[in-house]
Amino acid sequence: MEEEEEEYVVEKVLDRRVVKGRVEFLLKWKGFSDEDNTWEPEDNLDCPDLITEYMQKHEEEEEEEEKKEGKRKVVSEASGDSEERRSKRKKEEINKLDGLYRNLAQQKSH
User: Fold this and answer.
1) 50 burial class (0-12, 13-18, 19+ CB within 10 angstroms)?
2) Of 13, 18, 43, whose CA–CA distance to 29 is shortest?
3) Is the separation of the CB atoms in 24 and 18 below 8 Å?
4) If DSSP codes are grouped into helix, strand and coil, which group holds residue 83?
5) What is the pLDDT of residues 37-80, one digit of tens each?
6) Residue 80 to residues 65, 71, 72, 91, 110: CA-CA distances in angstroms?
7) Using one digit for the tens of pLDDT, what is the confidence trace for 40-50?
């Protein structure tokens, strides 16, 4: 008599992460406690419905969060600094280009 391989059934997809370019899902297994939850690569999984359900629910939660915040993106001071720095850098680049064009124009008119 052959031994039957124990079948593990995914009860729920709890989380998603990307490790070294591979998508992994944190799975809750039917008949096991939360301590037995495991991260599994997407390629190994045979529960597309549960993954779809998780992704849809996750997207809805994100949309609700945005609505609650009034679509305000809270900008921390650090990123505010880099925004300012970035725009200053852009202005400097534009000024350099303006200068080059002015020089070219003057050279052509001589």
Assistant:
1) middle
2) 13
3) yes
4) helix
5) 999 999 888 889 999 999 998 888 888 888 877 765 655 555 55
6) 22, 17, 14, 17, 45
7) 999 888 889 99
State how far the Cα of 74 lies from the Cα of 53, in Å rounded to an integer. 29
Dist. CA 47–CA 42, nearest whole Å: 9
User: Which residues is 18 bridged to in the sheet?
Assistant: 23
3-state secondary structure of 69: coil
User: Any idea which residue has 């725009």 for tokens?
Assistant: 87
Can you give the pTM of this predicted structure?
0.52
Alpha-carbon distance of 19 to 98, in angstroms, equals 45
